[in-house]
């Protein structure tokens, strides 16, 4: 099968009815996930290389809500379908807690990335290859249930509020029936401009 590394084909997930229902919702737009594309700078190499194998993250498909140009940021929510292998386990058939934290951090990063195109060039500070320069200040996680692998999960993130260079988010990892395995509150801070 041939497709850009940043975009797993929709057909990878449509064998599951709950995924098919999400992917057929016209209010959500499927978009490439830039963190799945290897870069010469080594930016995103953890997701683009280390976690892109047949035993780790076997498929990844991101979607976002419609942009509201009157909102900051314009895109308020993303969701990502992930096909997880057993190479992410800490216990037998259970994903490692650090990997769960990584997924929550990453889905917020994807939300920041999809909003990059809406920011005026002069309003961006110290851009990286993907066009963003935000860093995780904190990620407060609630582990609610073991994340069983292998299998497909849904990660979601949304904007809580924005104050200057600070952005607060919520994030979850769920199954197709709405069971939440983990949730997080996160604060990301944009780097100060170089002088």
Give me the CATH superfamily.
Answer: Hotdog Thioesterase
Give the strand content.
35-45%
Distance separating the two termini:
47 Å
CATH class: Alpha Beta
In the predicted model, the low-confidence regions spanning at least 5 consecutive residues are 121-125
CATH fold assignment: Thiol Ester Dehydrase, Chain A
* Number of β-strand runs: 9
Q: What is the alpha-carbon Rg in Å?
A: 16 Å
| Strand neighbour order, sheet with most strands | 1-2-3-7-8-9-6
Shape: globular
Number of distinct helices: 3
- Portion of residues within helices: 10-25%
Coarse structural class: alpha+beta
List SSEs in N-to-C order: HEHEEEEHEEEE
Q: Largest beta sheet, briefly?
A: 7 strands, antiparallel
Q: What number of domains?
A: 1
Tell me what the CATH architecture is. Answer: Roll
Provide mean pLDDT, rounded. Answer: 89
Protein name: Thioesterase domain-containing protein
Pfam families: 4HBT
InterPro entries: HotDog_dom_sf (IPR029069), PTE-AB_protein (IPR052061), Thioestr_dom (IPR006683)
Walk me through the topology:
Blueprint lengths: L16 H7 L4 E4 L13 H6 L6 E9 L11 E8 L4 E3 L2 E2 L1 H18 L19 E10 L7 E13 L2 E9 L5 E11 L5
Antiparallel strand pairs: 1-2, 2-3, 3-7, 4-5, 6-9, 7-8, 8-9
InterPro entries: HotDog_dom_sf, PTE-AB_protein, Thioestr_dom
Protein name: Thioesterase domain-containing protein
Organism: Coniosporium apollinis
């Amino acid at each position: 099968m041939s497709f850009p590394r940043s975009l797993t084909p929709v057909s990878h997930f449509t064998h599951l009815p709950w995924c098919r229902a999400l992917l057929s919702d016209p209010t959500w737009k499927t978009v490439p996930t830039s963190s799945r594309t290897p870069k010469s700078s080594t930016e995103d190499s953890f997701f683009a290389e280390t976690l892109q194998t047949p035993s780790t993250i076997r498929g990844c498909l991101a979607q976002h809500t419609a942009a509201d140009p009157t909102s900051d940021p314009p895109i308020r929510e993303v969701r990502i379908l992930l096909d997880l292998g057993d190479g992410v386990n800490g216990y037998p058939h259970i994903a490692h807690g650090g990997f769960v934290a990584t997924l929550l951090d990453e889905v917020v990063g994807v939300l920041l990335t999809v909003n990059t195109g809406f920011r005026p060039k002069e309003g961006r500070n110290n851009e990286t290859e993907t066009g963003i320069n935000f860093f995780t200040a904190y990620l407060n996680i609630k582990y609610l249930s073991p994340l069983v692998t292998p299998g497909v999960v849904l990660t979601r993130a949304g904007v809580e509020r924005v104050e200057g260079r600070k952005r607060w988010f919520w994030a979850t990892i769920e199954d197709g029936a709405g069971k939440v395995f983990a949730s997080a509150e996160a604060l990301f801070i944009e780097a100060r401009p170089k002088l």
